[in-house]
Amino acid sequence: MASMAGVLAATETVRRQTGADMMIQDLSAELRRPFEPRQDEPLTLWSRRLIKSCGEADDGLQTLARCLGYAEQGSVSVLELWRLVDEWEAVAFFQGADLRPLRSILREIRSASLLTSLARRASHSRTQELEEWCDTGWEVFLHLAGDNTAIEELPPSLAFLALAAEHLVKEGRTEDAEALRRWNRRQTQLRGLAEEMADWQGDELDPAGEASLHPAYLLVQFEPDGVDPERFYLAHWRQSDYAGWHPIPGETLRLYRHELPAAVDRLIEEAEERWSDLRQPVVIEFILPWTLLGEPVEWWHKETDTPVPTPLVMDYTVVLRSLERLRKVAWHRPWNKRWRQLKDQPAESRTHWSPPEQPAFHLERELKDDGQIVCLVLSEPPGTDAPTAQQEFVAALRAGIPALLWNRGASETAFQEVAADILQDRGLAGLLERTRRWRSQALALGPGQWDSHPGRHLALLLDDPERMPGPSAAGGGSEDEG
Predict the structure, then answer these.
(1) Could you give the residue ranges of the DSSP H alpha helices within 249-407?
(2) Residue 59, by phi and psi: left (phi above 0), alpha (psi -120 to 50) or beta?
(3) Are residues 317 and 386 in the same domain?
(4) What is the DSSP string of 402-439?
């Protein structure tokens, strides 16, 4: 605890009275207990008392590190405090066992992609990405030791050591590998987990098997800032856990509209770096407000600083989602009902073509009268100031229609032909695969000619209520003022 107190006392936040007061307010609010404010006393003494008080509360030290991070995102002090918190929890988890023999060995494992892969396998994908301070095998081991583990389940920290030993054998470091294995065997014997270790190693013989069948998702959300119509909050989440839906939030930015494509390019590059070891396909979902539904985000580019940028549709399945529906909880019951219809009974699900000039009231009535309608082909593209387009779109959301298809600029005859082909199979796979096929045909013509192909002008909104984004991360000074 003395080391943690020293790190805390040296931070810029604690050294300033106002910063210390704000941190204490956040800490008290999150832990729901009072903490003494900083008084006119040595900072180290006050920090030691604060660390001791947090250590007595459930998740108190983690909460302290998190609250310091609110003020000093990514600072050296915050990262060091997190490392010490993880070490404290690991020592407590292993009940005083000597961890020192592991430190020098694990600190030599530094490949970020390797460490991420080992942590993901060791935790059965519950740990999808590593925290910023987990930059060697030692920090990863300590961090995993603090994870909750069910009774009679192999702790991920011990699984990680087994995988690290396998890696060291491949590297020719057999003595180090055997040292890890001896320590691991001792711990599994003490905990009565020898059988669980054997079962886990048997399950891990083909770690890529099931995971490769489930896509990874990058969710990108644009939200108007409510003041300047040209500015938006960009939030994003990454999800690669094949065993469940646990999206990880990224940083939130406030950007001008013209800056959004370049920001998305950066997010994709970052996600690809984090996912370098994945065998899964990647789906990009854009959660768009009404004002951006006219943007051809599917055809935005990545690697825009190269002579020949790559359209997103070349590498990814890209679908749209509605921000308004996500936020309007009163629309979620019919949305969930229609989604179950589409997912569970595709053969009994239907598509409805919205007739031009039909009053929105009658469209909504027809949609709600037929519970088998799961897809609506819009008569006008959304995202404009046209009242008919807005009313048609809202009618679809109120009725809970999860899939919407519209034309961004092809001839009406060509679009109807393409839409009829896409919708001949009303299952989810058919919607996505046929849309992707038509876009690929447009891509094959190249940038000079693809605008003449109807596949270039397809827009598909496919809203899955089972894939909800979590809370977004705080922007924390990342605002780009352009």
Answers:
(1) 260-274, 312-315, 323-327, 332-344, 360-369, 387-399
(2) left
(3) yes
(4) -EEEEESSS-HHHHHHHHHHHTTS-SHHHHHHHHHHHH
In this prediction, residue 203 carries a pLDDT of 60
Share of the chain above pLDDT 90, in %: 70
Residue range(s) defining the domain that contains residue 78: 2-93
Tell me whether residue 415 is in a domain. yes
Identify whether the C-beta of residue 147 lies closer than 8 Å to the C-beta of residue 128.
Answer: no
Residues in contact with 165: Cβ distance below 8 Å, sequence separation at least 6, in sequence order: 177, 178, 180, 181, 184
Question: Is 370 found in the same domain as 251?
Answer: yes
Q: Which of 28, 60, 93 is the last residue of a domain?
A: 93
Q: Which residue, among 134, 151, 146, has the nearest Cα to 79 in the 3D structure?
A: 134
* pLDDT at residue 207, as a whole number: 47
308 occurs within a structural domain: yes
How many Å from the N-terminal Cα to the C-terminal Cα in the chain? 43
> Residue 146 — left, alpha, or beta (φ > 0 → left; ψ -120 to 50 → alpha)?
alpha
Domain-located, residue 100? no
pLDDT of 69-100, one tens digit each? 988 887 999 999 999 999 999 999 998 799 99
**37 phi and psi, to 5 degrees?**
-70, 165
For 404, residues 6+ apart whose C-beta sits below 8 A from its C-beta are 375, 376, 377, 378, 393, 396, 460, 461
| pLDDT beneath 50: ranges in the chain | 205-210, 475-482
Q: Residue 136 has what pLDDT?
A: 95
* Contact assessment for residue 422 and residue 438, using Cβ atoms and an 8 Å cutoff: yes
Which residue, 387, 428, 431, is CA-closest to 405?
431
Let me know whether 225 and 322 are in one domain.
yes
Query: Which of 58, 93, 128 marks a domain boundary?
Result: 93
List pLDDT tens digits, range 191-241: 888 888 888 776 654 444 445 568 999 999 999 999 999 999 999 999 987
Q: Are 376 and 339 part of one and the same domain? A: yes
Asked if 255 and 327 sit in the same domain, the reply is yes
User: Which H helix or E strand runs over 377?
Assistant: strand 373-377
What's the domain count of the chain? 3
Strand 231-239 and strand 216-224: pairing? antiparallel
Confirm whether 357 is domain-assigned.
yes
Residue 1: what pLDDT?
Answer: 75
Tell me: do 251 and 120 sit in the same domain.
Answer: no
311-360 tens-digit pLDDT = 999 999 999 999 999 999 999 999 999 999 999 998 889 999 999 989 99
Say whether both 195 and 314 belong to one domain: no
Looking at the structure, tell me whether residues 426 and 364 fall in a common domain: yes
- Residues 254, 257, 260, 261: what is their CA dihedral angle, to the nearest 10 degrees? -170
Q: Identify the DSSP state of 72.
A: S
